[in-house]
Structures are given as C-alpha cells and as structure tokens.
Amino acid sequence: MRAEAPHPGTGRFLVLGLGCERGTLPSELLDLSLVALARLGAAPETVAFVATLDVRAEEPAMHAVARYFSVPLVTFPAARLEAETPRLANPSDIVFAHTGCHGVAEAAALAQAGQGGRLVAEKTKSAHATVAIAESFQPLAAVSSLRDSAPSHTDSSRERA
C-alpha cells in the first residue's frame, strides 16, 4: 500500500502514534518512525500529527519527531486511549499495567484519526519505543475539535531545538 500526501479537500492524512520509555533517545524514535513510514510506502509529508499518551508530553524524543515532520504533538489521557481498545490490533495487558491503557502507539494514532480512522501500520517496536500509523479522511478542522475528550496540542514545529 502506498500512502499519498494529505489532501485538504478530502481531509485524508496520516497520524503517527508514538510510545516510548522515559529518556528514549530522539534518534531512536525518529528512526523507528521513518522505518514505519517507509514500510508503508508513505512520504514524510503525509504525516499531519504525532500523537501519544499525555504523560509523555514532555519527552524530548516526542518533540523531536513532531519537529522533524513540522506537525503538532497531540496528547491524550490514558482513559481516552483506553476507549480505543476495541480497535487495537495489539492490545497489551503489560502496557495497561504501566499506563492505564491497553496500547499507546496504536490507540493514540486512532484517537487522533477519529472514529472513521483506521490503522494502516500496526505497532512496530524498537528497544525503547513503539510507532503505529493511522489514516483518516476527516477534515482537519473536525479533528481539531473532537467531541468528548479534546486532545492536548503542542506545536513542536515552533519550538527551538
């Protein structure tokens, strides 16, 4: 499958869902993200958001990936990610024990992609990080105003390295 660049008229875009251990090197998370996109056949410009668990909001690796793609970092509380469990390809009791949700990367990607979103790349792991990719056809404005539990946005593209 080859992903195309986001189309403003159709709202088609990709979301990188990320998870990592505290202190993960930015290079590890970025390399894993690029490998996942390459396996999908997707160009970096197809990424519209980077999404993760809110407790990882201050991780330098998360901000580095968002800066690399020049997209917002969006975070969700564990309860919101847990609501995505029925749509996860790889739910994990171990992840739940540590985070309060059965998945971080897949759940974050799906949460930001919205109800019509779907996983196009299941969770891929490295030593200290995970990445999953979801696709959405929602207008970007609709994603920015999600209903019941609005995500937290950080514009990493405006931060200095």
Spell out the blueprint of helices and strands.
Layout: E1 13-20, H1 26-40, E2 47-53, H2 60-69, E3 73-76, H3 78-82, H4 93-99, H5 105-113, E4 118-125, E5 129-136, H6 140-144, E6 152-154
Parallel strand pairs: 1-2, 2-3
Antiparallel strand pairs: 1-5, 3-6, 4-5
Helix pairs in contact: 1-2
Structural commentary:
It is a single chain. The chain is an alpha/beta fold and 161 residues long. It has a single domain, classed as Nucleotidyltransferase, domain 5, CATH 3.30.420. It is 32% helix and 24% strand. The protein is built from six helices and six strands, in the order E-H-E-H-E-H-H-H-E-E-H-E. It has a six-stranded mixed β-sheet, sandwiched between helices. Strand 2, helix 2 and strand 3 form a beta-alpha-beta unit. Helix 1 crosses helix 2. The N and C termini lie far apart (34 Å).
CATH fold topology: Nucleotidyltransferase, domain 5
- From the structure provided, what is the oligomeric state, counting identical versus distinct chains? single chain
So, CATH architecture? 2-Layer Sandwich
Instruction: Let me know the CATH homologous superfamily.
Output: CobE/GbiG C-terminal domain
Widest beta sheet: strand line-up:
4-5-1-2-3-6
**What percent strand?**
15-25%
**Largest sheet, described in full?**
6 strands, mixed
Describe the global form: globular
State the secondary-structure class.
alpha/beta
Number of strands: 6
- Average predicted confidence as pLDDT: 86
| Count of individual helical segments | 6
Helicity range:
25-40%
Terminus-to-terminus distance? 34 Å
Using the coordinates above, name the CATH class.
Alpha Beta
Low-pLDDT stretches are 1-9, 143-150, 155-161
What is the N-to-C order of secondary-structure elements (H for helix, E for strand)? Answer: EHEHEHHHEEHE
**Gyration radius over CA:** 14 Å
Query: What is the domain tally?
Result: 1
